[in-house]
Design goal:
eight-stranded mixed beta sheet; homodimer; globular; alpha/beta
């Protein structure tokens, strides 16, 4: 159990001192997000103080958004940290919480703009269930045959047809490697390309890339971006070999890389043999407005682009199917070097998805999804578009995909974030995706995919109340 | 297309020379297993020789088991290589073969004793389908909630209950990490334990371990075994930190590690901080005879054993679900270091399996499976137990699990293997699992799980015919 020395509280009252001890431990990461605090009673007994004192300290922490309470369960630490923090329910625990507890905790948020979770209502349960049933009855033999390491031909063919039709990409099934999520495929790529290369991680960017490099023990460099995307001279200067980028919709800034920068990037890659571009097209299917820009892969004539995409954004974050398209010479190396690996996606899901794509259900689903997100997008953008709201908030990069940046006009964005959290609204500051601290703190990445209109409306009202009443405006 | 210079055939006839050229390319691995050879006609035209000549060369190669023909399709290279060879249909090809072609090829074998594929008839399709339907209708909300990185609590709890009941292991769900196959979990372990450790790979053993180490760029050493299992002094001598072993049923020799060696191994591990044992319990569920020996994990009091197991053996090799049980201090490190990874098994399969285990279906399935394999085992062992058969074949290590070693009394085991292959019986020589060449060649690893009785009977008859008529006996 947490223990603090309360013999010297200075000028603070006992409860203030205790509140500061816990707060500092949360800020320092000594107590992780989702961790349960001791019960008021047990804590008081352990520290030799009154229950009223622990209660007051906890109430202060709740009010400031450091912890939250679940009735009949206890007090839990909020996720306020930078970068990757430990997921709720995973850190503590010789006796882990039941999934129901975890569900209860997650539902505690009125609105969670930091979540990349897909919306339950949008998963095509009926047609997906029907497809599973068909596969289970029609394809028993295929279901029991080991999948080739790159995935079943059925799924890979469905993917190549899809890429041809919707991304105008001419690739063969041979080049497509299916795997259980993009993170897994990055691990495979590191094994394929080798430990000696230097990986370029966009800053700001998808922070897991750096984590994956680190845990594989390969070197990586942060590379800055400007309004057109990744800075090519910096790639040169930092001796990067392999750069990860999302030209269609940069994460998290939402920047769409113009064609000139794309060619500059391709030109960089062709200058040396061991240079590659990983094009992460993670949400191109959900692009709501504007013309589709051709993928880097489709304008690459030098086998320099590794294209990646995923079904976790369009189907469900809980269906773990992603794929990459390797240039031909890398595909050959893959089969030579890594074909000993079994495909990580089970046949049951591979055949279900292949059928779902081949019979047109995926296309219908995408259309439905785009319409749905478009409505949501228009709704939330319109909400921010009143003269009152404009004095507090500015939306940036709202044109592509299903998240946008929100600038909050406040001098104390951390306090704003905490106050929102205390009211069960979770926000993800943009600086979380930055390495170093060169960025203003008052921009938040707003992911609204998992949120209903009513929820958004309530959340916006609360955010406005917070900024109107509590937070000093610039 | 293949091209050879046929201007100087020496004393060979043209067809003999061509046959040798192709054979040498197959043996050298220049033409991979499953690769399609040019059609007789096109090949003849390309080389400027007669169709009869190419046909004769191909016929010779078929007779010797280097290639096989599929009617109306063409000639394909057999899998005769050592160790890991390229999977059929994956190497060649800007225009990959359809899955149907691949199916047709695989069915070409009358009996494939080298396959670890599970038998289609034994997959519990009816109850599995029912369970999926229940999950799809009852658990839509849970299906859409991101799984914790180690797996859903439902599945992890089902696994801990199973381990308690059947392996007498006391572990918490917190220690269980679910992943898409054992190979994937090894990759995670390497990331968890670090690149600087030396991994011990049993020789003979599960050859993928060395492949995984190699492709992760970590150092590894082969460690010999004797009749009791891995040689502990060799671990010391070679400065191994982490050793992979299967005490319950060594792969491929079938050795069961006695308790004395288990304690010797544990004692080795406790001598230094950075020493661990990976206990791969891959087929303990299928142990057919004899008493279960306690797992290393359950007699380990020093947090030195990482326990691994899989559902790919008992459900289907095409369902990619495995798990590991980490010692508490490693579980803590895992959550700290690697919890940014999403779980690689989709929620749909996690919840289906959890329910399948919790409602007793898995236990029933295992009982059914054991009975079934027991019958098969008894059948094949009995077949080999006649005085005629005994003069040609000796079975070793038949007590545990679902494969055994077959010693063939012949001076020319390669020829025996080739003659069998020409008759569509695929055998896996034990030396394939050895690093180096210190082993006699006349022992084969016989995996019979995917085979029916009739098939086994036919195969044995052909193997006996081959050895009686063609191969010199010792």
């Amino acid at each position: 159990m947490l223990t603090y020395n309360l013999t010297n509280t200075g000028s603070d009252s006992l409860y203030e001192y205790l509140y500061k001890c816990i707060r500092n431990d949360i800020l320092a990461g000594n107590i992780g997000a989702g961790e349960k605090l001791p019960s008021k009673r047990a804590f008081a007994k352990n520290l030799g103080i009154s229950v009223i004192t622990t209660q007051s300290a906890y109430e202060q922490l709740v009010a400031e958004g450091y912890i939250y309470s679940i009735p009949k369960s206890g007090y839990y630490v909020c996720d306020i940290g930078e970068g990757m923090s430990v997921t709720k329910g995973q850190k503590t625990g010789k006796s882990p919480k039941s999934q129901n507890d975890i569900l209860a905790e997650k539902q505690e948020f009125l609105a969670d703009f930091s979540s990349n979770q897909t919306e339950r209502e949008m998963f095509p349960f009926t047609i997906w269930s029907k497809t599973i049933r068909e596969v289970l009855s029609d394809s028993q033999m295929e279901l029991m045959m080991n999948s080739p390491c790159g995935g079943t031909m059925e799924l890979r063919s469905a993917i190549t047809s899809y890429l041809k039709e919707f991304r105008n990409m001419d690739v063969s099934a041979h080049q497509v490697i299916v795997g259980a999520g993009t993170e897994y495929l990055y691990g495979l790529l590191i094994q394929l390309l080798g430990n000696s290369l230097c990986y370029g991680v966009e800053n700001p960017g998808y922070s897991k890339i750096a984590n994956i490099c680190k845990s594989h023990g390969v070197s990586y460099q942060y590379v800055g971006i400007d309004r057109q995307g990744v800075l090519v001279p910096e790639l040169e200067r930092k001796n990067v070999n392999v750069v990860h980028t999302s030209p269609a919709h940069h994460f998290p800034t939402g920047i769409v890389m113009p064609v000139s920068r794309r060619y500059e990037l391709l030109s960089w890659a062709t200058k040396e043999e061991k240079r590659y571009i990983i094009e992460d097209d993670y949400d191109s299917e959900l692009r709501l407005t504007g013309k589709m820009i051709p993928t880097l892969q489709s304008i690459d004539v030098s086998e320099k682009v590794i294209y990646m995409n995923t079904f976790t954004k369009t189907l469900s974050s809980t269906v773990r199917i992603s794929y990459m398209v390797l240039p031909l010479h890398l595909a050959d190396q893959f089969y030579k070097k890594l074909s000993f690996y079994s495909c990580t996606v089970s046949n049951f899901e591979q055949y279900t998805l292949a059928r779902f794509m081949a019979n047109g259900s995926y296309e219908k689903h995408l259309n439905r999804l785009r319409n749905y997100y478009q409505k949501k997008h228009d709704f939330i953008v319109k909400k921010f578009d009143t003269s009152e709201m404009k004095s507090y908030f500015t939306i940036h990069e709202q044109d592509a995909g299903v998240h946008f940046l929100l600038e909050v006009h406040t001098k104390n964005p951390e306090e704003f974030q905490r106050q929102c959290l205390a009211r069960r609204i979770r926000l993800a500051p943009l600086r979380r995706y930055y390495h170093g601290d060169e960025i203003e703190n008052n921009i938040f990445v707003m992911n609204y995919t998992a949120m209903g209109q009513e929820q958004m409306e309530q959340a916006l009202k609360i955010m406005t109340d917070v900024i109107k009443n509590k937070i000093p405006v610039f």
